[in-house]
Design goal:
single chain; 4 helices; rod-shaped
Length: about 140
C-alpha cells in the first residue's frame, strides 16, 4: 500500500500542475489543492503507523499472555527471596539482642504479629558467632493453653 501511494503521489505531481495551468485556476486554489494532497498523504502514512502500532500492541499482549505463568513464577520467587532475607535479618537481629529493630521491622512489614514480640525471649550466645548462612536458634513465643 505504501508503494502504491508513493507512486500515485509522484504521478499526481506530473499531471495536476499542468491541468491547473490550463484552466487558469487561481493560485490560492492550487495551493489549497496541494495542501489537501499532502494532508491525504500524511493521513495515509499515519494510518499505516497506527496499524503497525496496533500490531505491536497485539504482539506484546500475546507474548505477555504466553509467558504469564513464567512472569508470575518470577514474581513469586522474588517475593520469597525478599521474605527470606527479611526473616534472616530478623533472626540475626533477634540473636544479637536488637529487639527495637525487630519491632521496627514488624511495623514496616505488617505480616509480623507484633503482639507476640513482647513474649519473645532473647538469648545472648556469648561464644557463638553465626554465619550469614546459619540460622541461630529462633526464639519462639510461649504457647498459652
Amino acid at each position: 500500500m505504501k508503494d502504491t501511494l508513493k507512486l500515485a503521489w509522484d504521478l499526481s505531481w506530473d499531471k495536476i500542475p499542468g491541468e491547473l495551468a490550463q484552466l487558469n485556476v487561481p493560485q490560492t486554489i492550487h495551493g489549497g489543492f496541494i495542501y489537501l494532497c499532502r494532508a491525504l498523504y500524511i493521513m495515509a502514512t499515519s494510518g499505516e503507523i497506527r496499524s503497525d502500532l496496533s500490531i505491536a500492541k497485539i504482539a506484546t499482549f500475546e507474548a505477555e499472555t504466553r509467558h504469564r505463568s513464567e512472569i508470575e513464577a518470577a514474581k513469586v520467587i522474588t517475593v520469597k527471596e525478599k521474605n527470606d532475607k527479611i526473616l534472616k535479618l530478623r533472626r540475626k537481629l533477634a540473636s544479637d539482642g536488637y529487639n527495637l529493630c525487630l519491632k521496627k521491622i514488624a511495623k514496616a512489614y505488617q505480616e509480623v504479629d507484633t503482639k507476640v514480640l513482647d513474649h519473645i525471649e532473647i538469648s545472648n550466645p556469648e561464644s557463638e558467632e553465626f554465619e550469614d548462612d546459619e540460622d541461630p536458634e529462633v526464639p519462639t513465643a510461649p504457647t498459652t493453653s
